[in-house]
């Protein structure tokens, strides 16, 4: 009788997982449109500084840069003129410049360049690419390669290198990106920030061993790993098939994709602390959205098996649509800025994070890829 019960339970779990269907494309697009409209209405002045919990920052920082990544993705599948105008106005408001200027080596400052370059490709006005190219050229012409000491920086800066490599057909951008990426992966912290045994990344040197979660496990921050997934996906999407070191990015991407399914929560989300549900476990949008983005892209590009990954993506996307998107477009269950599971806690459906922009960007990236499936 016990074995029959176990078999029945196993069948029920399997059926529950595989019964998950992708949400209708129109429903995903409706949710993205609503969430984006909420944000654009709230931030009608694209150049307005952002008042955060500890300081005021210009609106070309990384949080806003991630939002515009999502907006440009949304524009691909729903090319509304207002979206393009909003992005162009943002670039113009900042004179297509970077926080801290062209001498900055901070990936957070360079994130805005992803959208600047996209807009340059639509209308090749030199001012749109001038500063971001000058900034990345400074990195290329420097021997220093240890700037990306936190994994978030991979998503902020790697796609910029990849885009410039394509535009100028110059392998130096690919080579510098690889050198900096490899230093982060293998040398930052004690032995690098990537753990190949588990296919996951520590956010920075503060969290690699001997640091442990309350339950004595490795601390893998969900959004930090999400940033790496997004970095790899965006670089693979941009780079030519014969670009240098592409195989390394694809290999690491696939290792991460292998690790993530078993860590998904029954409700469809991933915990902020991926392997320890006691470490502020619960619903969270940003990491979940970035994993959906990566998995949906992988299926669409033939790298991931749809039978395995589509139910996972469907479960997560359905959860976000039903439990995060307010009727007015506000997004709940978003962990604010930070670097670890405890930051911004506790989360809730109604709580407003310190910055609303990057969470929306993650959601738009995920939704756009799901619509493309």
From TrEMBL:
TM ranges: none
UniProt-recorded name of the protein: Rhamnogalacturonyl hydrolase YesR
InterPro entries: 6-hairpin_glycosidase_sf, 6hp_glycosidase-like_sf, Glyco_hydro_88, PolySaccharide_Degr_Enz
Gene Ontology molecular-function annotations: hydrolase activity
Keyword Hydrolase recorded: yes
A Gene Ontology biological process term: carbohydrate metabolic process
Lineage: Bacteria, Pseudomonadati, Bacteroidota, Cytophagia, Cytophagales
Pfam families, per database record: Glyco_hydro_88
Keywords: Hydrolase
Keyword set includes Hydrolase: yes
PANTHER family (alphabetical): UNSATURATED RHAMNOGALACTURONAN HYDROLASE (EUROFUNG)
Stretches of the chain forming a coiled coil according to its record: none
Top-level taxon: Bacteria
